[in-house]
Specification:
Radius of gyration: 21 Å
Largest sheet: 7 strands, mixed
Strand content: 5-15%
Helix content: 40-55%
CATH architecture of the largest domain: Alpha-Beta Complex
Strand order of the largest sheet: 3-2-1-4-8-6-9
Number of domains: 2
Amino acid sequence: MIVFWIALAIGLVYITIQIWQLITLLRYRHRYLPEPASWPEISILIAARNEEDNIKQCLDSLIKLDYPADKIHIVCGNDQSTDNTGMILTEYAAKYLHIKAIEIQDDNSGLKAKARVMAQLEAFAKGEFYLITDADIQVKPEWAKFMVRSMEIGTGVCSGTTVVKGNGTWGNMQEMDWAYFMGMLNIISYNRVPATAVGNNMIVRAEAYHQVGGYSGIQFSITEDYKLYSEICKKGWKWNNIMQKEVTAYSAPVIGFATLLHQRKRWLSGGRELPWYWWVLFGVFGFFYFLVPVLIFLDPFTGLVIWGVKWMVQSCLIAGIYRLINESKPALPNFLVYEIFITANTLFTAVFALLPLKTNWKNRHY
C-alpha cells in the first residue's frame, strides 16, 4: 500500500501547487514604466539557422515595430545555414539600412550553436539595451517599447511571453502547452522566486551584458539563454518576467513528435543547472503522470477524482493565461485533447531523456 500513499501524496501536492499558481495568476498585475522623453538606442539580435520558412515573417514583424527607426539596429547571424536563409538575410540587409546580416564563422571559442552566433554578433550591437529573439518568432509592433519599459533601474534582464501559433490539432496542442508552461514560469517568478529567461523573447541591459562578458565570456551551455540570465543575476542585477499582451511573441510549432522530444530533451539537459527547487517541481509534475495511473488502478474512484480535479484547475490556469495575454481561449474539446497530449508528451519525454542519445537540434548533435 506504500505505492498508494505515495501516489496519493504526489497527486495532492500537484493540485496544491496548481491552486497556488491559480491564486497568484488572479492577483497578478504588471506595471510598465512611463514612456521616456527620448527612446534609448537598442539592438535586436537574431540567430538564424535553416529558417527559410520563418525568417521573412520574423523580419517583417521587426520592420513594423513602433519604435524610432533611427534608434534600432537589427543584427542577424546566419549560422551556416544549408538552405536559403543566408540569401534572404542578405536581401533584407540590402533593402533596409537598419538591418545587418552577418555570416557566422567557425572559431576556437569553444562555443556552439546560438551562443557562438550571439558572441559574434556582440561586435555589432549598439545601444543601451539588447533585445534577443529567434528567427521563427513574430513580435507585435509595440513589443520593443514595452520591453524597454519593463527595465526598471537595476534590472539587468527581462523576459516576455512566447506562445506557439500553428494550425490544426498539432499546432493547437503546442500552443496550449507553451501557454501553460510559460504561465507556470511567470507565476513562479511573480512570487519573487528566480526563474529563467526565454531566449526567444528577452531584453538585456547592455551594461549587465558586458559586465558578465556576454555570451563569449560565459561557459557554453546547450540552454545558453538561461546561462546568460543566471550569470547576470549572480552579479546582483534584478530580473523580471512579464506575461502581458504587449510583449507576447509568437513562435512557429515544431514539426513532428520526434523533433518535439529532442526539443524537450534539450531543455531538460540545460535545466540541470537550475536550482534544486525547480527539480522538486519537475519531479512532482513528472511523477504525477507515472504514479496517479497506478492510483487509478488501485483505487479507481480516488484516482479519477485526483486526476479530474487536476484537469479542472489546470484548465482554469490555461484559460487565465490566455485572458492575461489577450488571446482567444481554446475550445472545450481542446482542453480534453490537451490532457492526452500533455500526458503522452511527459511520459515519452521522461523516457527519451534517459536514453543515451545525443540531442539533435537543427541538424546538430549535442
